[in-house]
Write the structure tokens for this entry.
Amino acid sequence: MKSRRVVLIGFGAIASDIAAALLAASEPGYALGVLLRPDSPSRPRVPDSCTALASLDEVEAYAPDLVIEAAGHAAVRDSVPGCLALGLPVLISSIGALHGEALLADLVATARKGGGRLLLASGALGGLDYVRAVRHATQLDLRYESRKPPAAWSAELQRLGHDPATLSQPVTLFSGTAREAAALYPQNLNVAAALALAGPGFEATGVDVVCDPAATGNMHVVTASSEFGTMALTIANRPSPANPKSSWIVAQALLAAVEQHFSPVVML
């Protein structure tokens, strides 16, 4: 059976974890290409087991079965549209970039015109299947709370006059809509964007960002209530050993999405 061809956009901590797992997969296996932005301030070394790609033309020639974005919001703006225009399915990890209405509309239009597909990974969050099921409820109240330790919000705490080393009580850094949250914290709230896109939209999804000295990991709390019932979900993710700002589970969620993409049996 022919190996599956996958292109990774970026090669940071998440992408390197994905590459290691895919290259270790059994039959039919994977062939990997890596596309790096030419203006990236830090260009990681692409391992010999992967094919380095320098342009969209090289991506097209590589003819991938799937493209995975794992390089941040700039890559969603700069590299994803071209891949969609080529008719490729693109799995996005930096979902927070889609808080911009114009960008999301352009990506959807490009995908429709070129025949590509925009695939959104659940990332660090669970329960999106339930949220999708109730998104059209007439009495839906959906709220997300991010709760992280002071080390994750050191700069923000200092700007508010708090000493991260001596903080003893939780501090609410933000309370508002998912659109506002994703714009203010583009590197931290991909989860809020994923929830909004699965649910009733950015304006109708409430978000609270809490710095909690008692938190031992990256905690996500989702509550939903509607005429169909209620849901209360709490997830405590461990930070990635390679990048403490990211949850360790994110790479695993992307790998699960890759497995679903190629599987004859799909869990929706």
User: Anything to note?
Assistant: Residues 23 and 30 are 6 Å apart (CA to CA). The radius of gyration is 19 Å. The chain has ten helices and eleven strands.
